[in-house]
Amino acid sequence: MLDRYARGFFTALFRPLVRTLARAGATPNLVTVLGSVGAAVSAVALYSWGQLFWGTVAITLFIFSDMIDGQLARYLDQQAEAGHGRARSSADRALGNFLDSSLDRLVDFAIFGTLAFWWFTGGGRPMFGTAALALMAAGGLVSYVRAKAEALGFDASVGFVERSERLVVVLILTGFTGLGLNSWWWFGGVVAVCVGSVVTIGQRITKVVSQARAGHEPAQTRR
């Protein structure tokens, strides 16, 4: 949901950087890999030791790559159409899609997993750690349900809480908790996002079921 409303703002914000990366010969896949690995390493290195504020700062900087890689891909395509570069192959586009989806899961698991580790250990709040694990599982299911539905030819592009909402809420609350905000705000926010993720799973399953009952023929069965 946030993606749809914030896309224009971030497109304008990152346009100069995207052009600089294109001139430097960077590829969307390279940006995806470096950003995802950087975010995951930041989570493990900082969150697991209780550095909630600085961990959030580092992760946020790397997570912006998730927006930049898509913008870079579109910019390179536009340049190729204008005759100023080589067009990307369909195999390269497919690889980019695969890397983006797979590495998003890596980053999510690193963030929520290390937060859970911290609350179970140094944070001293096992209930909070359980909430982080529950959100990790719910978030993974949100993404899986859509990916599986689309692989079968259904449309599951609906949802109250998607990845952007999960990350924004959790990162903001975690950062402020690191600055001294009462940690119960973190817990309440994570529980709310977890409930929203479960609702999103239900929305997507319901939409797929309604399409199937309406006679939609999944792509996997088409000849």
What does the largest sheet look like?
none
Instruction: Estimate the global geometry from the Cα principal axes.
Output: flat
The H/E string reads HHHHHHHH
Our estimate of the beta-strand percent is: under 5%
Give the termini separation: 34 Å
Q: Into which percent range does the helicity of residues fall?
A: over 70%
Number of strands: 0
Report low-confidence residues grouped into runs of 5 or more: none
- If you compute it from the alpha carbons, what radius of gyration comes out, rounded to the nearest whole angstrom? 19 Å
Instruction: Give average pLDDT, whole number.
Output: 87
Structural class determined from secondary elements? mainly alpha
Number of helices: 8
Q: Can you tell me about this structure?
A:
The structure is a single chain. By secondary structure, the protein is mainly α. 78% of the residues lie in helices and 0% in strands. The chain has 8 helices and no strands. The chain starts with a helix and ends in a 10-residue tail after the last helix.
Write the layout of secondary structure elements.
Elements: H1 2-23, H2 28-46, H3 52-63, H4 65-81, H5 90-120, H6 126-151, H7 163-178, H8 183-213
Question: Outline of this structure?
Answer:
The protein is an all-alpha fold.
Which properties best describe this structure?
223 residues, mainly alpha, 8 helices, 0% strand, CDP-alcohol phosphatidyltransferase, transmembrane
